[in-house]
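Problem 12. The chain below contains 667 residues. Write out its predicted structure in token notation.
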Amino acid sequence: MNYLKISVAVLLLVTPHVMHAQTDSLNVLLDEVVLEEHRNISALQGSLASGIRIDTKMIAAYPKLFGYTDPMRYVQSLPGVSTNSENTGGLHVQGSETSHNLILLSDVPVYGPAHLLGFFSMFNQDHFPNVVFSLSDKSSFLGGRLSLDPADTIPSGPGGTATVGLISGQGTVTFPLSDRSALTMSVRRSFINTFYRGLLSFEGNPIRFGFTDANATFLYKPDANNTLDINLFYGLDKGFCNYGDYGISMDADWGNTLTSARWRHRGHGISMSTSVFMSRSHVNAHLVQEAAEGVMPSHIHHYGAKFQLVLPHALQMDFEASYFDIEPQSPMIMTNISADPEHEQALLGTAAVQRRFTLGDLDITPSLLFTGYTETSSGKAYFNPDPSLELSYDMYNRGSLTLEGGRKHQYLNQTGMTDCGLPVEFWFAAGPHNDAQEALYASLSYDLLFGGGRYSLSLQTYGKHLENQVEYTGFLFDLLTHPYDLDRNITVCSGYNYGASVMLSRQSGRLTGWLGYSFGRSLRQGDGVRFPKLFPSSHERMHEFNAVANWKNGRWDFGASFVLAQGQPYTPANCMYLISNCVIVDYGEYNSIRLNPYMRLDLSATCNFNRKGRLDHGINLSVYNATCHYNEVLQYLNYDPDAGTFCYSKAHFMVPVIPSISYFCRF
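Solution.
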């Protein structure tokens, strides 16, 4: 048991108190007062209402995938966030789209944060030790917020970390340039095609994939009150697949580039932050089916500047100016002459102010966000004031209640045939195809620490009314059989998200971890013609249970994570027929059927070797999907060469169980 024990010797002398006809005197001696509190050693700290901070060093002891512990995967195991299956990446927070979340890398927005079907994020945990997640955010995004920051202290000497496994290897080095500056560099590269080449196939068709990413951070601290950091990031994915039975092959590359410079000042009760940045994400895909050939380029480029000022009396002001250059998915098919690629340019300015007031045990935080937006090609412009209010009531040892509500607008959309970082996903701006997205939201949370701080309980219920949501209703074969029209492939919907979550965590002792359950609906209402009824969104999971645990026993760390969730909805095919070697599909009611429930158990064992000087090192053994449960990941068109017909089949992940071994060190 790890706990903090404080012993204080106290001598109380009560002098006589004289009253008119009576004199009483009392002498009390307390030899010792003991206050006991358990130290929090959990990898996750915080609550669903206040936000959760992830300790990347502690989370390294939890189950790894391919020898790597990704903080985003453990955010996906929190209540209110849908789990990551083998075809779902990103974060679905309280039933919203992955594009509704603001994901920040050194305060720079990231577009497309997933590698390899969501198995890896683009974040190197050793480069970004400061990770904070919140289920809500007061920016111009409708969902949650995930923020990752590099270390902001100057090391006394050089150091670093390294991990080498069968799937990927990564390394981070940090060294001081002077007593006021330091440089941190990280690189990561996959070895999937080297060691798992024979396993990467689908229905006997080969699949090849690899990724590389690199980070660099220059940190300068001229004094205790000022910090300057310059950040660079480069990431690239490359993939190839060949579906011989269908005569289809596709190769693609997609990636991100980020640069930023940020200055922060703290002193005399004032905090300021100023940053300028560039964030670029691109996709280049090449698709061939017999005589038909095409490309699917898309990109989003974001250039911006931010300023934040925090004054005494809990007054905060934020300002941001952004310019967007966007090319939505623009398939160009040789057999179907397409129009010139669409190109969008947009300007967005935001100004926000919030102030916290305290009335006894009640904290009141009103805020107001002003947004001004225009898209040049359509000429549409929007100006929206978005208010919000947060009430927090502290009941001391009985916990705390938090009520939050407000309105938001979002001007960027992401859609496509998947949501796991594949090149069939793309961004587009509000204006040409749909109006700005809007959300009216409210949530009520209860948080309690008990057992001397050993346990925590979080409960939350929420509701959202959404307008101008986008559902992509096209399919891959449509790109080869019809002239491309984005408006024909998307449906603009209203929506309703509502649900409740509970999380119980143990934060100290040999055994730490959390249990979570979520119930949630994510419903959409279409145009009333093609979609006359409410239908579930493509990522909806009504029920989900998660359990994550870590047990320390001497030099060993044993970890396990378990998820059981309802299957995602999909659209069935009523019939299929072949015309001029092109497959034509007649689909049934949209998202009217669900895949079977998703279940997965991951196990991990880490042996920490004896320390040698400054070197901490060890070996990790992990098993992904230890029960070998055949989870369904999608529906696909299957060709039966013997019968000469197509059928609609359920696909499973190419490898039912994935063992991995990796060596890690820290110096």
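Discussion. The longest helix spans residues 71-75. Students who got a different answer should revisit the alignment rule from Section 12.3.
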